[in-house]
Amino acid sequence: MIPYGRQDISEEDIAAVVAVLRSDFLTQGPAVPQFEAAIATHCGADHAVAVNSATSALHIACLALGLGKGDRLWTVPNTFVASANVGLYCGATVDFVDITPDTYLMCPEALAEKLAAAEISGTLPKVIIPVHFAGQSCDMAAIGALAKRYGVHVIEDASHAIGATYQGAPVGNCAHSDICVFSFHPVKIITTAEGGLATTQDAALAQRMDLFRSHGVTRAPDLMVDAEDQGGWYYEQVALGYNYRMTEMQAALGVSQTRRLDAFVARRNALAARYDALLCDLPITLPAQSRESYSAYHLYPIQVEDRVEVFAHLRNNGIGVNVHYIPVHTQPYYRDLGFKRGDFPNAEHYYHHAISIPLYAGLTEADQDSVKSVLKAALDG
Ligand SMILES: *Cc1c(COP(=O)(O)O)cnc(C)c1O
């Protein structure tokens, strides 16, 4: 079976993890700050906070921005459930903005309309989370300008998009957002097994995220309430935080993987360009790319007429396809919150036709040719 995505682990990656196992620190050592520095440098961000998943990174990002009870968080339906769930963790109300039919990204026009209506009814969100679906950046200039106008915070869910650029600058530089979040799950661009990270240009936000990832406990004099240091053991809990820390083994793997980040993204782009050429004569819709974006190509999502049949044929013939995403608002848990099918028609229409075909750095041209021939047979069938 050719999977839809998988990690690429080198001997150097393995040696980096083994070296940590032989060292003094399995957690809270030097590797996490090293990994944070590597990603911050790559993204052109002043600060990076590494945690045990992107879900945790989104959660502490929301907490750092003060999201709480009575507040509202908006994201897109075409995402993994975590992008929305983090709002509920904070006690906020969650709502959605529909996607564009061609890029499957948050639609700036739909956002503008919804913000204008929310301003009138006094229901503006505190936080919006655009998602860089498939590795392509959203129209962040438009989204950032709207956020500024209405006084809304922006967290980029760039789980798919490390190594991507927007308007020539790296995703993660937070040029149009407060915080940007990456995932290092094995199917993503680089991996730490489980893992995530938040970048920001704001020192205070970084300090608050650092607090929330480790129990709300601090040794920083400027964060302490009672302040006077009573000795070397002394710390204070000044917020209700979590244990969201990344281990040293994960961070060492991350440092090692980051050395190949640009090569992984270049390889994914070359494979995507080859799919573009290979599949353009089939009766399917290929993923549209904006001129402003260099995608990290986490996914290569196609749309087909008879999705159920084509998906089954591919799966039954050795092609490990998947579907991204079941619109979050149609999940039973979100229907219980009042959402219903039909609420966000573009995301639902896209979902009913979507198939993510295999794309990862280790995919071969022969694998791509197999995908094409099985896909062609499925469409002819
Ligand atoms: C993978 C993913 C997440 C969650 O990432 P984890 O690291 O598994 O917590 C969140 N949002 C999107 C869009 C994702 O693809």
What would your notes on this structure say?
By secondary structure, this protein is α/β, with parallel strands linked by helices. It has two domains: 2-258, 3-Layer(aba) Sandwich (Aspartate Aminotransferase, domain 2), CATH 3.40.640; 261-380, Alpha-Beta Complex (Aspartate Aminotransferase, domain 1). The chain has helices at residues 11-21, 31-43, 54-64, 82-89, 108-121, 140-150, 203-213, 248-258, 261-279, 307-316, 332-335, 345-353, 365-380, and strands at residues 47-51, 72-75, 93-96, 127-129, 153-157, 165-166, 169-170, 179-183, 196-200, 217-218, 236-237, 293-294, 300-303, 354-357. The strands form four sheets. The protein has a seven-stranded mixed β-sheet, sandwiched between helices. The mean pLDDT is 97. Pyridoxal-5'-phosphate (PLP) binds next to helix 3 and helix 4. InterPro entries: DegT/StrS_aminotransferase, PseC, PyrdxlP-dep_Trfase, PyrdxlP-dep_Trfase_major, PyrdxlP-dep_Trfase_small.
Strand order of the largest sheet: 1-9-8-5-4-2-3
Shape designation = globular
CATH topology of the largest domain: Aspartate Aminotransferase, domain 2
Written as H for each helix and E for each strand, in order along the chain, the element string is HHEHEHEHEHEEEEEHEEHHEEHHHEH
Number of helical regions: 13
Q: What is the gyration radius calculated from CA atoms?
A: 21 Å
Largest sheet: 7 strands, mixed
Helical content (DSSP H or I, runs of 4+): 25-40%
- Give the tally of β-strands: 14
Uncertain ranges: none
Bound molecules: pyridoxal-5'-phosphate
Mean pLDDT: 97
Please state the structural category: alpha/beta
Based on the coordinates given, report the CATH architecture of the largest domain.
Answer: 3-Layer(aba) Sandwich
Distance between the termini: 21 Å
